[in-house]
Amino acid sequence: MDHRTVVFSAVFPVLSLSHTTPTPVATPDLGVTVQGAAFGSPYIPRQAELHDSSTHRQVKRTIAWSCATRFLSLDKVVPAVPRILHRTREVEDALVYLLAGEGKTSEDARGDRREGEEGLCDWYTNECRLHFANNVRPELDELWADEVKIGCAWDALSETQRVLEQVQNVYLEPFNEHILPFLGSGATTRSARPSRRDEDEAERAAWKFRRDVHVLFAHCVAPRRFSKTLSYVLYDAGCRLFRIYTRHDGVQPSAIPENTTEVRQQMTTLLQGLERIGLGGESAQKAFAHAMHKLLDSFISSHYMKVDWYDEKSVVPHLKEWIKDGFCPLVELILECLRCEQSSVLPTEVTAWQEMALGRLGRVRVDNLFDFVIRWDRSKGAILDIKEYLKVAGAKQHVTSSFSQQVSRRLLHPGATTTYILNVYIFIIRSFHELEPKGVLLERVARPIRRYLKEREDTGRIIISSLLTDLSDEAGSKFSSNSELSYEIASEMVKPLTNLGQDADEELNWNDMNWQPMPTDASPEYKKSKVEDVIWFLLTLWERDDFINELKNILGDHLLRCTDPEYEKEIRLLELIKMRLGDSNLQAAEVMLRDVLDSKRINATIRAATDSQVPQAFSTPEQRPRGPRTPNARHPRTPQPRRGAQLSSHAPSTPAALAGPTLNAQILSSFFWPLLRDDEFRVPAEIQRLQDTYGTNFSRIKGMRKLRWMNALGSGSITLSFADRTEEFDNLTPWQVSVVYAFQAQPGEEHIAAKVGKNGEGIARNVAQLEEMLDMDETLVRQAVAFWVGKSVLRETGLDTYAIIETLPKSDGKAKADEDKAVAAAELAAVEAAQATAVRSQQDLFNEKRDVYETFITSMLTAQGNVPVSRILMMMRMMMAGGFPFGEEEIAGLLGEMEGEGKVIKVGGDVWGMRR
Amino acid sequence: MKVTIREWNAVAAWRWDMPDDDVCGICRNPYDSTCSKCKFPGDECPLLLGECNHSFHMKHCILSWLKQESSLEKCPMCRQPFKSKGQDATSAGAEQPLQAPDSSPI
């Protein structure tokens, strides 16, 4: 023993140092020399006599101590059952002496023990401790030294429990049998009945010993590891009891359903055992709480709580039921096993747990809310779950933030097409209407989407053209995935108009018995929408004026292409917009619609007038019956749904109409229409004549007005008669007709036309010739030529030279080559046709005025030196006649092109200057 | 090859056959547009050409001007007595009722 240990043990008693071992039995009993007697005299009194004699107390105690401790000391090997000791009279006397008699270590008034004396209880406790440390602990350490594997958690716990319980029994038996009885019995000597104080003392001693042993046990198993293992075991039991197969620990459940009664029995036994050996205390309760937490989570992610895709109902009632009838009983059972202070669950706690579970379920659902939204309709079950969840405090906040995050990550990025975003937005509107009919959440969630949609250029176009699309016909082809049309918008349009117009002065409507105050959490710009009105949300995306401008452009284009003679959808759309946005500023749209409707009537009137005049005034050569024309070229024509179709159907009654083409005109009030493309070129002569006649008649009917034909717009149907075949084409653009028309033999060319070329080719013309003949732009000529090559009507015979294929080639090779070229050209033509819209785009306008802008910039840079783009823009906005409707981007683009031409130079940043 | 045109759908824009000063002297809207009260141009908002070669939107512009006492039936532009250029005015006026059924499509 070094010095340090001695000092330490003086303050904190070290068991192994202070604990005394019983005196060996073999030690000869020398007796004690009594005062006054000679040392070693043969008259030393025997032990039995000691009590009576007035031997020194110290001596007597030592003897009793030795006897008692020898009796009580524990064997090295822990027996399976507590050994039964029979105490001899001698031992009993010693025990009585030490515990209740004089030898008792009494705490005197000063409160400190007699120096050097140790109580028997303390000694026995120490004995147990040492015994435990030396003999039992190594065995347990082996069990708990390493992380307890999931698979052997049950075994580890039950083994520990078994060992400890056994040890505890061994320790307790002597204590209960041989120490406790004497503790209380001391009183009998003094009074007839054991006083209360002595009983208390015995109880206290028992309690203290038990506690000491339990502390011993608790320290021998690593507390964290134990708590983790216990928690796992409880969780495992829960999962098995409730048959939850998706578990946090990743253990695959056995295929055979567990016998729940058995599991329950096993768990109860284990818990009660643990409680008996003192491991059921606070740490076990903590572990239990932890296990229940995980069990709840597991249950929520288990198959019981799957989204109900079939019945589209909420699973929340099931959850609540389970908490009440499944979870609570389990908790109560465990509480009882662990002997907690409160072993029954209060109703308020049940409610609280239900809410907690609902909160967790809600969070799980909200994490996938985006997926549910885009599968709206079928995902109604999930949405209803979240609806329940919204009742939980703080849920709305969470839904908003989580969903906004999902939207910005998954929707609002350049990779998503505008159509897709619009569709999703509609789904959001619909599902959130179910989620929260008041619309506060929707308003919050939709704000970033609306802002984003506003930034996209094509949003307006897609919305309006989708609104104008007919849902019923060819739905499959139109709404393919890459299409620009939104099926959802179109289907909204089909829904009957809901009651509107009440929204005015809603707050002041005193007769509204269904009036409700604004939701408390509504933002200032919150507007209550009474109906789930998707179109209203879409139409209010922009400022009204911007929207109407866009509408004007799209409607213009649409009306010119429209095939419905009654314009039902268009009228409906206009009414719809009027109802939602009010009818001011919609004049242009109304005029446009009126124009196309009026045109039909004007057509009829003028036709009647023309027909009556034709026999006298217009018997031009073209009106004479045509040679190769067969009647079946005309009659089998399928009834076209185009405007004026009904006019032409009764037209053949007069001979004049039979002879010439039918001219249907759309007369536009150009002031109200968007800028339309007006490429100038010559239309076929007969059309020209018809148009002139029409124009004259129009001026006659509508005094003081004249017509300007916009040849780039409209369409034609023609029949081509070749040497070997006849083909019909409908819906051609005017320039396509004009170009193919120009391939006919002109006066003086008949002889060329008569001799067919070696490959069956007719008249050939090159692009330049066509341009000159038709006064047409080169681009248009090329586009038309490409179209006809694509239709196997023309063939490129030389550079830029095309010839009519009068007879189709017979040989395969030639036909194949033609076919290939035709396919390529058809693609080209299709691409170009897609770009050719009736309404002129901003870009077209810009290109048209490019020269003016260029001159302006040049003179500005010359006069003012180097100037930044923003200043150029400002000056142009101020100075240009007719305004400058473009932005910095266009100017920068123009400057870039000018730089390429070597006219200007970039000085740095956004500043440009003249090149010198 | 022979091209036979069966049907031709053409598009045309109408405009008033007027000298180039483009706006009505009273409402300052272009002739091709409407006066500020009318909704549809053309038949519903015809022009009236005076003998002084000044023309105006008829219904709500020049007629209501002429109704005022202070106008003294003079052209607001040149202060000459306003008389419609005979045949134009009458034809426009006369055709109005005839055209009426045509021009109310909706």
From TrEMBL, chain A:
InterPro entries: ANAPC2, ANAPC2_C, Cullin-like_AB, Cullin_homology, Cullin_homology_sf, TPR_ANAPC2, WH-like_DNA-bd_sf, WH_DNA-bd_sf
Native source organism of the sequence: Didymella heteroderae
UniProt keyword ATP-binding, yes or no: no
One family name in Pfam for this protein: ANAPC2
Similarity comment text for this entry: Belongs to the cullin family.
Entry GO CC: anaphase-promoting complex
Gene Ontology MF term list: ubiquitin protein ligase binding
Signal peptide: 1-18
Protein name per its UniProtKB record: Anaphase-promoting complex subunit 2
The keyword Manganese belongs to this UniProt entry's keyword annotation: no
Annotated segments matching region Disordered: 610-658
GO biological process, one term: protein K11-linked ubiquitination
Ranges for domain Cullin family profile: 495-789
Positions with biased composition (Polar residues): 610-622
UniProt keyword list: Cell cycle, Cell division, Mitosis, Signal, Ubl conjugation pathway
TrEMBL record, chain B:
Segments for region (Disordered): 82-106
UniProt keywords, alphabetically: Cell cycle, Cell division, Ligase, Metal-binding, Mitosis, Nucleus, Ubl conjugation pathway, Zinc, Zinc-finger
Location(s), subcellular: Nucleus
Entry annotated with the keyword Ligase: yes
PROSITE patterns: ZF_RING_2
Pathway entry: Protein modification; protein ubiquitination
GO biological process: anaphase-promoting complex-dependent catabolic process; cell division
A cellular-component GO term for this protein: anaphase-promoting complex
Domain called RING-type: residue spans: 24-79
Example of a GO MF term: zinc ion binding
Matches recorded under PANTHER family: RING BOX
Protein family according to the UniProt entry: Belongs to the RING-box family.
Name listed for the protein in its UniProt record: Anaphase-promoting complex subunit 11
